[in-house]
Amino acid sequence: MNAMPIHQQEVICALATPSGVGAIAVIRVSGLGSISMVKSIFKGKNLEEAETHTVHFGTIQAAGEIIDEVLVTVFKTPRSFTKEDSIEISCHGSDYIIRQILKLLISKGARIAKPGEFTQRAFLNGQFDLVQAEAVADLIAADSQASHKTALNQLRGGFSKKLASLRTELIHFASLIELELDFGEEDVEFAQRDDLRRLIEALLSTIAPLIESFDFGNALKEGVPVAIIGSPNVGKSTLLNALLNEEKAIVTSIAGTTRDVIEDTIVLDGLKFRFIDTAGIRETTDLVESIGIERSKNAMEKADIVIFLFDSLETLEENQQLGALLPDGKQVLYVLNKIDIGEIAAESLGALQENVISISAKSQTGLSQLTNKLVSMVYGQSASDTVVTNLRHYEHLVKTHDALNDVLNGLETGVTGDFLAQDIRLSLFHLGEITGTIVTDDLLENIFSRFCIGK
Protein backbone atom coordinates (compact mmCIF):
# COMPACT_ATOMS: atom_id res chain seq x y z
CA MET A 1 0.00 0.00 0.00
CA ASN A 2 1.27 3.49 -0.84
CA ALA A 3 2.19 5.70 2.09
CA MET A 4 -0.59 8.12 2.97
CA PRO A 5 -0.11 11.59 4.45
CA ILE A 6 -0.37 11.48 8.23
CA HIS A 7 -3.74 12.82 9.28
CA GLN A 8 -3.93 13.78 12.95
CA GLN A 9 -7.50 13.24 14.09
CA GLU A 10 -9.51 14.07 17.21
CA VAL A 11 -8.17 12.67 20.45
CA ILE A 12 -9.35 9.19 21.40
CA CYS A 13 -8.65 7.22 24.58
CA ALA A 14 -9.26 3.69 25.82
CA LEU A 15 -8.08 1.05 28.23
CA ALA A 16 -5.54 -1.08 26.33
CA THR A 17 -5.20 -3.84 28.95
CA PRO A 18 -7.93 -6.33 29.97
CA SER A 19 -10.59 -4.94 32.28
CA GLY A 20 -10.63 -6.11 35.88
CA VAL A 21 -8.45 -5.54 38.91
CA GLY A 22 -4.73 -6.03 38.26
CA ALA A 23 -1.34 -4.67 39.23
CA ILE A 24 -1.08 -2.34 36.22
CA ALA A 25 -3.42 -0.93 33.59
CA VAL A 26 -2.46 0.95 30.41
CA ILE A 27 -4.61 3.73 28.98
CA ARG A 28 -3.87 4.74 25.39
CA VAL A 29 -4.43 8.27 24.08
CA SER A 30 -3.92 9.30 20.44
CA GLY A 31 -4.69 12.22 18.15
CA LEU A 32 -3.96 15.89 17.58
CA GLY A 33 -3.38 17.57 20.95
CA SER A 34 -3.15 14.31 22.92
CA ILE A 35 0.22 15.22 24.46
CA SER A 36 -0.91 18.68 25.64
CA MET A 37 -4.16 17.13 26.92
CA VAL A 38 -2.34 14.60 29.11
CA LYS A 39 0.11 17.33 30.17
CA SER A 40 -2.84 19.28 31.61
CA ILE A 41 -3.64 16.47 34.10
CA PHE A 42 -0.07 15.24 34.68
CA LYS A 43 2.22 16.60 37.40
CA GLY A 44 5.82 15.90 36.43
CA LYS A 45 7.91 16.36 33.27
CA ASN A 46 6.67 18.86 30.69
CA LEU A 47 5.44 16.27 28.16
CA GLU A 48 5.44 18.70 25.24
CA GLU A 49 9.18 19.21 25.72
CA ALA A 50 9.89 15.51 26.22
CA GLU A 51 11.64 13.46 23.55
CA THR A 52 9.63 10.82 21.74
CA HIS A 53 9.84 7.27 23.11
CA THR A 54 10.60 8.41 26.64
CA VAL A 55 8.95 7.40 29.92
CA HIS A 56 8.23 9.83 32.77
CA PHE A 57 7.13 9.35 36.36
CA GLY A 58 4.55 11.65 37.93
CA THR A 59 0.99 11.90 39.18
CA ILE A 60 -2.41 12.31 37.58
CA GLN A 61 -4.32 15.06 39.38
CA ALA A 62 -7.83 16.48 39.31
CA ALA A 63 -8.53 19.81 41.05
CA GLY A 64 -5.28 19.45 42.99
CA GLU A 65 -6.16 15.97 44.25
CA ILE A 66 -3.85 13.08 43.32
CA ILE A 67 -5.66 10.22 41.59
CA ASP A 68 -2.62 7.97 41.06
CA GLU A 69 1.11 7.79 40.60
CA VAL A 70 1.76 6.83 36.99
CA LEU A 71 4.34 6.29 34.26
CA VAL A 72 3.63 8.22 31.06
CA THR A 73 5.20 7.14 27.74
CA VAL A 74 5.43 9.75 24.98
CA PHE A 75 5.25 8.87 21.26
CA LYS A 76 5.48 11.79 18.86
CA THR A 77 4.31 11.77 15.25
CA PRO A 78 5.22 10.00 13.04
CA ARG A 79 7.06 7.56 15.35
CA SER A 80 4.03 5.97 17.01
CA PHE A 81 1.74 3.02 16.34
CA THR A 82 -0.95 5.31 14.88
CA LYS A 83 1.66 7.72 13.42
CA GLU A 84 -0.15 10.42 15.43
CA ASP A 85 0.99 12.03 18.68
CA SER A 86 0.22 9.36 21.27
CA ILE A 87 0.51 8.79 25.02
CA GLU A 88 0.32 5.62 27.09
CA ILE A 89 -0.52 6.06 30.78
CA SER A 90 0.54 3.14 32.99
CA CYS A 91 -1.46 3.35 36.21
CA HIS A 92 -2.47 0.95 38.98
CA GLY A 93 -5.09 -1.55 37.85
CA SER A 94 -7.96 -0.34 40.03
CA ASP A 95 -11.29 0.02 38.23
CA TYR A 96 -11.86 3.26 40.15
CA ILE A 97 -8.50 4.75 39.08
CA ILE A 98 -9.07 3.76 35.44
CA ARG A 99 -12.55 5.31 35.41
CA GLN A 100 -11.28 8.55 36.99
CA ILE A 101 -8.46 8.97 34.47
CA LEU A 102 -10.77 8.25 31.51
CA LYS A 103 -13.35 10.71 32.89
CA LEU A 104 -10.62 13.36 33.19
CA LEU A 105 -9.55 12.81 29.58
CA ILE A 106 -13.14 13.00 28.35
CA SER A 107 -13.66 16.24 30.31
CA LYS A 108 -10.65 17.66 28.44
CA GLY A 109 -12.19 16.84 25.05
CA ALA A 110 -11.20 13.26 24.28
CA ARG A 111 -13.69 10.53 23.41
CA ILE A 112 -13.65 6.77 24.02
CA ALA A 113 -12.15 4.93 21.05
CA LYS A 114 -14.25 2.58 18.96
CA PRO A 115 -13.19 -1.09 18.69
CA GLY A 116 -9.99 -1.29 16.64
CA GLU A 117 -9.81 2.47 16.09
CA PHE A 118 -6.12 2.77 17.02
CA THR A 119 -5.21 0.09 14.45
CA GLN A 120 -7.58 1.64 11.90
CA ARG A 121 -5.78 4.97 12.25
CA ALA A 122 -2.44 3.19 11.84
CA PHE A 123 -3.72 1.69 8.58
CA LEU A 124 -5.17 4.98 7.31
CA ASN A 125 -1.89 6.75 8.07
CA GLY A 126 0.11 4.19 6.07
CA GLN A 127 1.73 2.35 8.97
CA PHE A 128 0.85 -0.95 7.29
CA ASP A 129 -1.64 -2.44 4.84
CA LEU A 130 -4.96 -4.10 5.59
CA VAL A 131 -3.56 -7.64 5.71
CA GLN A 132 -1.05 -6.52 8.35
CA ALA A 133 -3.75 -4.67 10.28
CA GLU A 134 -5.90 -7.82 10.42
CA ALA A 135 -2.82 -9.77 11.51
CA VAL A 136 -2.69 -7.61 14.65
CA ALA A 137 -6.00 -9.14 15.79
CA ASP A 138 -4.82 -12.63 14.84
CA LEU A 139 -1.60 -12.14 16.81
CA ILE A 140 -3.55 -11.12 19.91
CA ALA A 141 -5.84 -14.15 19.54
CA ALA A 142 -3.01 -16.63 18.81
CA ASP A 143 -3.09 -19.50 21.30
CA SER A 144 -0.52 -21.85 19.77
CA GLN A 145 2.98 -21.58 18.37
CA ALA A 146 1.80 -22.26 14.82
CA SER A 147 -0.98 -19.64 14.84
CA HIS A 148 1.40 -17.14 16.46
CA LYS A 149 4.06 -17.75 13.79
CA THR A 150 1.53 -17.38 10.96
CA ALA A 151 0.10 -14.13 12.35
CA LEU A 152 3.58 -12.72 12.96
CA ASN A 153 4.61 -13.54 9.38
CA GLN A 154 1.58 -11.65 8.06
CA LEU A 155 2.17 -8.74 10.44
CA ARG A 156 5.70 -8.45 9.06
CA GLY A 157 4.34 -8.33 5.53
CA GLY A 158 5.11 -11.83 4.21
CA PHE A 159 1.71 -12.26 2.55
CA SER A 160 1.50 -8.59 1.51
CA LYS A 161 4.86 -8.65 -0.30
CA LYS A 162 3.79 -11.66 -2.33
CA LEU A 163 0.53 -9.97 -3.37
CA ALA A 164 2.26 -6.64 -4.08
CA SER A 165 4.68 -8.23 -6.56
CA LEU A 166 1.76 -9.91 -8.37
CA ARG A 167 -0.19 -6.69 -8.57
CA THR A 168 2.77 -4.63 -9.83
CA GLU A 169 3.36 -6.97 -12.77
CA LEU A 170 -0.32 -7.04 -13.63
CA ILE A 171 -0.63 -3.25 -13.50
CA HIS A 172 2.15 -2.99 -16.12
CA PHE A 173 0.21 -5.07 -18.64
CA ALA A 174 -3.08 -3.42 -17.73
CA SER A 175 -1.61 -0.01 -18.58
CA LEU A 176 -0.37 -1.29 -21.96
CA ILE A 177 -3.79 -2.71 -22.85
CA GLU A 178 -5.50 0.50 -21.71
CA LEU A 179 -3.08 2.34 -24.03
CA GLU A 180 -4.18 0.09 -26.89
CA LEU A 181 -7.77 1.13 -26.26
CA ASP A 182 -6.78 4.78 -26.61
CA PHE A 183 -5.43 3.97 -30.08
CA GLY A 184 -8.28 1.63 -30.97
CA GLU A 185 -8.80 2.99 -34.48
CA GLU A 186 -5.15 2.45 -35.42
CA ASP A 187 -5.15 -1.32 -34.62
CA VAL A 188 -1.92 -1.25 -32.60
CA GLU A 189 -0.80 -3.83 -30.01
CA PHE A 190 1.40 -2.58 -27.19
CA ALA A 191 0.94 -5.56 -24.88
CA GLN A 192 2.53 -8.68 -26.33
CA ARG A 193 -0.07 -11.43 -25.96
CA ASP A 194 2.50 -14.21 -25.44
CA ASP A 195 4.16 -12.23 -22.64
CA LEU A 196 0.77 -11.55 -21.06
CA ARG A 197 -0.11 -15.27 -21.26
CA ARG A 198 3.12 -16.23 -19.52
CA LEU A 199 2.49 -13.64 -16.81
CA ILE A 200 -1.09 -14.84 -16.19
CA GLU A 201 0.08 -18.47 -15.98
CA ALA A 202 2.79 -17.44 -13.50
CA LEU A 203 0.25 -15.51 -11.44
CA LEU A 204 -2.14 -18.46 -11.40
CA SER A 205 0.65 -20.81 -10.29
CA THR A 206 1.41 -18.42 -7.41
CA ILE A 207 -2.19 -17.86 -6.34
CA ALA A 208 -3.29 -21.53 -6.50
CA PRO A 209 -1.09 -22.68 -3.56
CA LEU A 210 -2.29 -19.69 -1.53
CA ILE A 211 -5.90 -20.74 -2.10
CA GLU A 212 -5.08 -24.36 -1.29
CA SER A 213 -3.36 -23.30 1.95
CA PHE A 214 -6.58 -21.87 3.41
CA ASP A 215 -7.86 -25.12 4.94
CA PHE A 216 -4.46 -25.64 6.54
CA GLY A 217 -4.29 -22.00 7.67
CA ASN A 218 -7.79 -22.10 9.13
CA ALA A 219 -6.84 -25.25 11.03
CA LEU A 220 -3.78 -23.49 12.46
CA LYS A 221 -5.94 -20.59 13.56
CA GLU A 222 -8.99 -22.42 14.92
CA GLY A 223 -7.50 -25.81 15.83
CA VAL A 224 -7.39 -29.00 13.76
CA PRO A 225 -10.62 -30.97 14.29
CA VAL A 226 -9.89 -34.67 14.91
CA ALA A 227 -12.81 -37.07 15.32
CA ILE A 228 -12.23 -40.29 17.26
CA ILE A 229 -14.57 -42.85 15.69
CA GLY A 230 -15.16 -46.52 16.41
CA SER A 231 -17.46 -49.20 17.72
CA PRO A 232 -18.69 -49.12 21.34
CA ASN A 233 -16.10 -50.06 23.97
CA VAL A 234 -13.00 -49.87 21.75
CA GLY A 235 -11.55 -47.19 24.07
CA LYS A 236 -12.43 -43.85 22.43
CA SER A 237 -13.13 -42.07 25.71
CA THR A 238 -10.04 -43.62 27.32
CA LEU A 239 -7.94 -42.32 24.41
CA LEU A 240 -9.43 -38.81 24.74
CA ASN A 241 -8.69 -38.78 28.47
CA ALA A 242 -5.13 -40.01 27.85
CA LEU A 243 -4.50 -37.31 25.21
CA LEU A 244 -5.88 -34.55 27.44
CA ASN A 245 -4.34 -36.01 30.58
CA GLU A 246 -7.62 -35.56 32.46
CA GLU A 247 -10.88 -37.45 33.06
CA LYS A 248 -12.89 -35.55 30.45
CA ALA A 249 -15.09 -38.43 29.31
CA ILE A 250 -16.83 -41.09 31.39
CA VAL A 251 -15.23 -44.52 30.96
CA THR A 252 -17.11 -47.72 31.87
CA SER A 253 -17.29 -51.29 30.60
CA ILE A 254 -20.91 -50.67 29.57
CA ALA A 255 -21.32 -50.30 25.80
CA GLY A 256 -22.85 -47.00 24.68
CA THR A 257 -21.71 -44.89 27.68
CA THR A 258 -20.85 -41.90 25.46
CA ARG A 259 -24.10 -40.59 24.03
CA ASP A 260 -23.04 -37.16 22.82
CA VAL A 261 -20.04 -35.52 21.21
CA ILE A 262 -17.37 -34.51 23.76
CA GLU A 263 -14.76 -31.99 22.60
CA ASP A 264 -11.61 -30.42 24.02
CA THR A 265 -8.39 -28.89 22.77
CA ILE A 266 -4.70 -29.60 23.26
CA VAL A 267 -1.51 -28.14 21.76
CA LEU A 268 0.92 -30.67 20.25
CA ASP A 269 4.28 -29.50 18.89
CA GLY A 270 2.97 -25.95 18.53
CA LEU A 271 -0.29 -26.98 16.80
CA LYS A 272 -3.72 -26.74 18.39
CA PHE A 273 -5.93 -29.82 17.95
CA ARG A 274 -9.64 -30.11 18.72
CA PHE A 275 -10.23 -33.75 19.68
CA ILE A 276 -13.81 -34.98 19.42
CA ASP A 277 -14.89 -38.11 21.29
CA THR A 278 -17.98 -39.59 19.69
CA ALA A 279 -20.65 -42.11 20.52
CA GLY A 280 -19.82 -45.69 19.50
CA ILE A 281 -21.40 -46.40 16.12
CA ARG A 282 -23.65 -49.46 16.09
CA GLU A 283 -27.23 -50.51 15.37
CA THR A 284 -29.45 -49.54 18.31
CA THR A 285 -33.09 -48.93 19.19
CA ASP A 286 -32.20 -46.54 22.01
CA LEU A 287 -33.45 -43.06 20.92
CA VAL A 288 -30.84 -41.06 22.86
CA GLU A 289 -27.96 -43.27 21.70
CA SER A 290 -29.25 -43.04 18.11
CA ILE A 291 -29.04 -39.23 18.26
CA GLY A 292 -25.48 -39.51 19.60
CA ILE A 293 -24.51 -41.86 16.77
CA GLU A 294 -25.93 -39.46 14.18
CA ARG A 295 -23.85 -36.67 15.73
CA SER A 296 -20.81 -38.95 15.54
CA LYS A 297 -21.31 -39.33 11.80
CA ASN A 298 -21.64 -35.54 11.41
CA ALA A 299 -18.42 -35.02 13.41
CA MET A 300 -16.67 -37.51 11.14
CA GLU A 301 -17.78 -35.58 8.07
CA LYS A 302 -16.58 -32.22 9.41
CA ALA A 303 -13.26 -33.37 10.90
CA ASP A 304 -9.98 -32.73 9.08
CA ILE A 305 -8.60 -35.99 10.44
CA VAL A 306 -10.55 -39.12 11.43
CA ILE A 307 -9.03 -41.57 13.90
CA PHE A 308 -10.65 -44.98 13.41
CA LEU A 309 -10.05 -46.81 16.68
CA PHE A 310 -10.40 -50.61 16.75
CA ASP A 311 -9.41 -53.40 19.12
CA SER A 312 -10.18 -56.50 17.05
CA LEU A 313 -10.54 -57.64 13.46
CA GLU A 314 -14.30 -57.36 13.87
CA THR A 315 -14.21 -53.70 14.91
CA LEU A 316 -11.62 -52.98 12.18
CA GLU A 317 -13.97 -54.37 9.56
CA GLU A 318 -16.80 -52.19 10.87
CA ASN A 319 -14.57 -49.09 10.66
CA GLN A 320 -13.48 -49.89 7.12
CA GLN A 321 -17.12 -50.15 6.06
CA LEU A 322 -17.79 -46.78 7.70
CA GLY A 323 -14.66 -45.27 6.13
CA ALA A 324 -15.93 -46.15 2.67
CA LEU A 325 -18.64 -43.51 3.16
CA LEU A 326 -16.12 -40.70 3.77
CA PRO A 327 -15.55 -38.01 1.11
CA ASP A 328 -12.45 -38.41 -1.06
CA GLY A 329 -9.37 -36.74 0.38
CA LYS A 330 -10.36 -37.13 4.03
CA GLN A 331 -7.30 -37.94 6.13
CA VAL A 332 -7.80 -41.22 8.00
CA LEU A 333 -5.65 -42.79 10.69
CA TYR A 334 -6.28 -46.37 11.82
CA VAL A 335 -5.28 -46.98 15.44
CA LEU A 336 -5.20 -50.40 17.11
CA ASN A 337 -6.00 -50.06 20.83
CA LYS A 338 -5.63 -52.39 23.83
CA ILE A 339 -2.26 -53.88 22.85
CA ASP A 340 -1.68 -54.39 26.58
CA ILE A 341 -4.23 -57.22 26.27
CA GLY A 342 -2.84 -58.63 23.03
CA GLU A 343 -1.98 -57.49 19.48
CA ILE A 344 -3.53 -58.68 16.24
CA ALA A 345 -1.12 -60.53 13.97
CA ALA A 346 0.28 -58.07 11.42
CA GLU A 347 -0.60 -60.26 8.43
CA SER A 348 -4.26 -60.18 9.55
CA LEU A 349 -4.33 -56.42 8.95
CA GLY A 350 -3.73 -56.88 5.23
CA ALA A 351 -2.80 -53.73 3.27
CA LEU A 352 -3.23 -51.60 6.41
CA GLN A 353 -0.43 -53.27 8.38
CA GLU A 354 2.20 -50.65 7.39
CA ASN A 355 -0.05 -47.73 8.37
CA VAL A 356 -1.69 -48.89 11.60
CA ILE A 357 -0.46 -47.31 14.84
CA SER A 358 -0.66 -49.65 17.84
CA ILE A 359 -1.38 -48.18 21.27
CA SER A 360 -2.74 -48.87 24.70
CA ALA A 361 -4.81 -45.86 25.70
CA LYS A 362 -5.14 -47.31 29.21
CA SER A 363 -1.37 -47.57 29.84
CA GLN A 364 -0.59 -44.69 27.40
CA THR A 365 1.75 -46.93 25.39
CA GLY A 366 2.34 -45.63 21.84
CA LEU A 367 0.68 -42.25 22.43
CA SER A 368 3.79 -40.29 21.40
CA GLN A 369 3.86 -42.18 18.10
CA LEU A 370 0.19 -41.31 17.58
CA THR A 371 0.62 -37.60 18.35
CA ASN A 372 3.76 -37.37 16.17
CA LYS A 373 1.79 -38.87 13.29
CA LEU A 374 -1.03 -36.37 13.76
CA VAL A 375 1.39 -33.44 13.71
CA SER A 376 3.09 -34.72 10.54
CA MET A 377 -0.32 -35.18 8.85
CA VAL A 378 -1.19 -31.54 9.50
CA TYR A 379 2.15 -30.10 8.38
CA GLY A 380 1.88 -32.18 5.22
CA GLN A 381 -1.32 -30.38 4.18
CA SER A 382 0.33 -27.25 2.79
CA ALA A 383 3.25 -26.86 0.41
CA SER A 384 3.06 -23.05 0.49
CA ASP A 385 5.48 -21.05 2.62
CA THR A 386 2.81 -18.36 2.98
CA VAL A 387 -0.41 -19.53 4.62
CA VAL A 388 -3.84 -17.89 4.18
CA THR A 389 -5.85 -17.86 7.42
CA ASN A 390 -8.43 -15.14 6.72
CA LEU A 391 -11.73 -15.99 4.99
CA ARG A 392 -11.93 -12.53 3.39
CA HIS A 393 -8.48 -12.98 1.83
CA TYR A 394 -9.42 -16.46 0.62
CA GLU A 395 -12.61 -15.24 -1.07
CA HIS A 396 -10.80 -12.46 -2.95
CA LEU A 397 -7.98 -14.81 -3.98
CA VAL A 398 -10.57 -17.18 -5.47
CA LYS A 399 -12.18 -14.27 -7.34
CA THR A 400 -8.76 -13.10 -8.55
CA HIS A 401 -8.01 -16.63 -9.76
CA ASP A 402 -11.34 -16.79 -11.63
CA ALA A 403 -10.77 -13.38 -13.28
CA LEU A 404 -7.23 -14.37 -14.35
CA ASN A 405 -8.60 -17.59 -15.84
CA ASP A 406 -11.03 -15.45 -17.83
CA VAL A 407 -8.05 -13.42 -19.13
CA LEU A 408 -6.32 -16.66 -20.15
CA ASN A 409 -9.47 -17.95 -21.85
CA GLY A 410 -9.83 -14.60 -23.61
CA LEU A 411 -6.29 -14.86 -24.95
CA GLU A 412 -7.02 -18.37 -26.23
CA THR A 413 -10.19 -17.29 -28.05
CA GLY A 414 -8.70 -14.00 -29.30
CA VAL A 415 -11.13 -11.58 -27.62
CA THR A 416 -10.59 -7.86 -28.11
CA GLY A 417 -8.50 -5.71 -25.78
CA ASP A 418 -11.49 -4.10 -24.07
CA PHE A 419 -12.67 -7.50 -22.75
CA LEU A 420 -9.14 -8.39 -21.64
CA ALA A 421 -8.84 -5.04 -19.89
CA GLN A 422 -12.12 -5.63 -18.05
CA ASP A 423 -10.97 -9.00 -16.64
CA ILE A 424 -7.55 -7.61 -15.69
CA ARG A 425 -9.21 -4.68 -13.90
CA LEU A 426 -11.34 -7.17 -11.98
CA SER A 427 -8.23 -9.13 -10.96
CA LEU A 428 -6.54 -5.94 -9.78
CA PHE A 429 -9.66 -4.92 -7.88
CA HIS A 430 -9.78 -8.15 -5.86
CA LEU A 431 -6.04 -8.05 -5.10
CA GLY A 432 -6.45 -4.44 -4.00
CA GLU A 433 -9.38 -5.34 -1.74
CA ILE A 434 -7.16 -7.77 0.15
CA THR A 435 -4.37 -5.32 0.96
CA GLY A 436 -6.58 -2.24 1.28
CA THR A 437 -5.27 -0.47 -1.83
CA ILE A 438 -8.93 -0.42 -2.80
CA VAL A 439 -11.05 0.05 0.29
CA THR A 440 -14.52 1.21 1.35
CA ASP A 441 -15.78 2.63 4.63
CA ASP A 442 -18.12 -0.34 5.04
CA LEU A 443 -15.21 -2.77 4.66
CA LEU A 444 -13.14 -0.92 7.26
CA GLU A 445 -16.08 -0.78 9.65
CA ASN A 446 -16.68 -4.52 9.27
CA ILE A 447 -13.00 -5.42 9.84
CA PHE A 448 -12.13 -3.13 12.75
CA SER A 449 -15.42 -3.54 14.61
CA ARG A 450 -14.24 -7.07 15.50
CA PHE A 451 -11.13 -5.74 17.26
CA CYS A 452 -11.06 -5.11 20.99
CA ILE A 453 -11.37 -1.54 22.27
CA GLY A 454 -7.93 -0.12 22.94
CA LYS A 455 -6.29 -1.82 19.95
TrEMBL record:
Enzyme class: hydrolase
Superkingdom in the source lineage: Bacteria
Entry EC no(s): 3.6.-.-
Binding site for GTP: 233-238, 252-258, 277-280
Cofactor detail note: Binds 1 potassium ion per subunit.
Residues covered by the TrmE-type G domain: 223-379
A Pfam family reported for this protein in Swiss-Prot or TrEMBL: MnmE_helical
Binding-site positions, Mg(2+): S237, T258
Keywords: Cytoplasm, GTP-binding, Hydrolase, Magnesium, Metal-binding, Nucleotide-binding, Potassium, tRNA processing
Function as written in the Swiss-Prot or TrEMBL entry: Exhibits a very high intrinsic GTPase hydrolysis rate. Involved in the addition of a carboxymethylaminomethyl (cmnm) group at the wobble position (U34) of certain tRNAs, forming tRNA-cmnm(5)s(2)U34.
Subunit structure: Homodimer. Heterotetramer of two MnmE and two MnmG subunits.
Protein name according to UniProt: tRNA modification GTPase MnmE
Organism field: Dyadobacter chenhuakuii
Lineage, opening ranks: Bacteria, Pseudomonadati, Bacteroidota, Cytophagia, Cytophagales
